[in-house]
Amino acid sequence: MSERLAAVFERLHPAWVGLVGFVLYLRTVAYGFVLHDDPWLIRDNRLLHELSAESVWRVLGDFSWEQRYRLGAEYLPVRDLSVMLDYTLYGEWIGGQHLTQVLLYAGTCAVLASLALMLSRSHSLAWLTGLLFATHPVHVEVVAWLSERKGALGAFLVASSLLVATSYLRRGGWARGLAACFLFILAVASKALVIAGAGALVLIVLWLDSPLERRRQLTFVAAYVACGLLVFIPNVWVSRSMGVIVPYHGDGFTDTLLLFFQAHTQYLKLMAYGGPYAVEYAIQPGDAGIGRWLPGAVGAVLGAGMVAWALLARSRRTAAMLGLGWWFVFLAPVSHLMVPVQNYAADRYVFLPSFGLLLAFAVVLMKLPRVVSWPVGGALILLGSGWTIAQTPVWSSTEQLFENAAHVDPTNAEAWDELASLAASRRDYERAWAYTRTGLEHSPGHWALLHRQGLLLAAEGKLDAAIEKMRQAASVPESHKAYANLALLYLKRGRREDALRMAEEAVRLQAETTHNQRVLGIVTYELGDIETACHAFQRAAALDPYDDSNVQNLELCAKPSPQPAAEP
To answer: What is the Cα–Cα distance from 169 to 405, expressed in whole angstroms?
Structure first.
């Protein structure tokens, strides 16, 4: 049986694995928007809803703070134009955007399987790697979450770029070289961190026996890197000005290193089908138990050491070593060691790196006798498919997503808070209270849950109790929204000076939040400081020009009225 299957795989091109990826995720077409980013970046971002010369120009060339903020605080014009094209093709049908995401994933699976074939010249290895990649459940976040269009699009384009680049290195042809560079520009303009593709190209050049002379290869690599930097540098500039590039985590390099080892441990576990998978994981900078960072540290040291060992002698540069090198190259930008990314760990961070680890694993598996390798490989593909099918519905709604997050990590206060918020929006206050109490049992004194209880008390008309609870919540810089809502509660109680003090503190802690600026405007307007109020209203409207409350408040500056629009 295995002989007949091997013969089939040798005849068929492995790009057909893209169909597997397409079928696995086709059900996501019925899903909608989730979390906060989908509404912010897509649903409520009216700039992307209509394709026009003006909207295209604003995406490509408008570097104003307000415009960049509305486009995700990044400069990723290809991603934004792809969303704009979706609206042109599908209108308001959200399923169309999900369909695009599924097609991008199917294309990425096909391209990476083709790249595995071109690098190894083994159909069986390419098929195995492609199927392991297409069915791995760690990819669900990238495919099912519309806000990860940048990840899906960036991966497809950089994989296509490296495939064409490998073809150039094998066969030459200036058109292939130009196409590879152009695709790399588009890739970095979709997701900045795929700039790591330049490092992957260096690995391919070192591993590949190319007929091109060394000088020509080096010239190509230099041109490739330069093309990526054309978009990467503007993105870094925008990200710095927007505060997306955050300070390094922890108190020093040791904390940052331990954070990477914790994340690497989690990634290795997820890659080994050792979920459960979730939108967030219990990883934090600072002290952690040895079991939470040691496996990642050992894996990083051994893996990087093996790649370095392979670099010392060409005879050691096998496909498995190339796969390990690919893993570390694409993991580097999200390792916290090079760039202190905002999330400590996320499934989407290993979307591209996973191809390298799966390639290395496939090489090792194929060295075993077929009576072992085929059943094990088949079992893993079935396991991955089943887990993907089971995991995909988690992303069907925000409530499902956070229920899963709270189940995976009961100390995740933000997940309990989000569940309480969703229940309150349905006026199911009993359940909202239950969520906050459960969250506080696992995370005693967490400001987000105390803040939510303050809002619930305010909704029940218990103003004094709400103020006391909100005062408890307004305790750390992260709780700036609690300060703002405390200001509104003080204003209702007639404590105007306290309201002003809290509103100013909220803006001091986080000035680039619409709610904080709006609250400052409301409070200062009530105090008769129209100039400060109008400045705050204008800032809130610049941050979110599509919010009706902001538009209404701005009208106060043209024609004063005693009723600014406000909701805690």
So the answer is: 45
